[in-house]
Amino acid sequence: MTVFQDYARYYDLIYRDKDYKGEVDFVISRLAFLHPTARTILDLGCGTGAHAEAFAEAGFPVTGIDLSGPMIKGAKRRRKSLPEDIAKRMVFRRGDARNIRLEGKRFDLAAFLFHSLCYQISDEEVINALATARAHLNPKGVVLFDFWHGPGVLSKPPETREKRVQTDDVIITRISEPSRDAKTNTVVVNYDLSIEDIKTGAVANIKEAHRVRYFFKEEILRFLASAGLTPVEIRPWGGAGEPGADDWNVYCAARAL
Ligand SMILES: C[S@@+](CC[C@H](N)C(=O)[O-])C[C@H]1O[C@@H](n2cnc3c(N)ncnc32)[C@H](O)[C@@H]1O
Questions:
Q1: Fold (CATH) for 8-151+214-256
Q2: Which one is predicted more confidently, 2 or 149?
Q3: Could you read off the pLDDT of 194-205 as tens digits, one per residue?
Q4: Which fold has domain 156-213?
């Protein structure tokens, strides 16, 4: 895998304004409805562990798995920086959500958050990743993932964006240039980062192309069934009702068939 490598070093800075706690509060609110006694969480595609931290702070033990070595390193660094009573609820391990099996370990929630499932491109990869989530569920366990919603992507196509983040030491400018491939229902997001050292003026560049798949509800239903899951909620992230043509970010909660 060639994504989330050098880019991982700057990931937390780029997303320092992202409301991870708010997202976790939303997931916890769905859990309170779907599985009120849920405690343990498997965070697949956990990245640098920001959701895991918020879950651990809320009292939930979390195991985070990520394919990217640098992202898992970031997650372990995060854990070290936290107070012991929170850090003790967090475990991170490098692994591939498409095939990892944690022997003897089962969870009340298996989640893919912030579009981690969308990095699985072929039907087989998506089904395998969902089957991994399914394989790690306790009885009554829930799978929850968010995804790029096809109708939203088609009605409001992704655009080139620039994001700038500054600290005392560096100025990071990230240009994201998307390009949609209608044949595979994917968008390649070309990230171009420039990192300027404020003291020396030196500039470093990082380029990564991330291919992300968007999904239609009918596909999600088919993939869930193939993975031994049945949907219980497919809704706009943070909202209610059927996802509409304007909804880009949709979540699905499912249970074992
Ligand atoms: C957009 S990032 C989200 C990371 C984290 N959930 C967050 O919210 O910050 C997607 C993550 O999914 C991970 N990922 C993609 N495919 C994966 C796979 N097959 N197995 C494990 N991790 C995967 C990537 O390495 C990356 O860290």
A1: Rossmann fold (3.40.50)
A2: 149
A3: 999 999 999 999
A4: S-adenosyl-L-methionine-dependent methyltransferases (2.20.130)
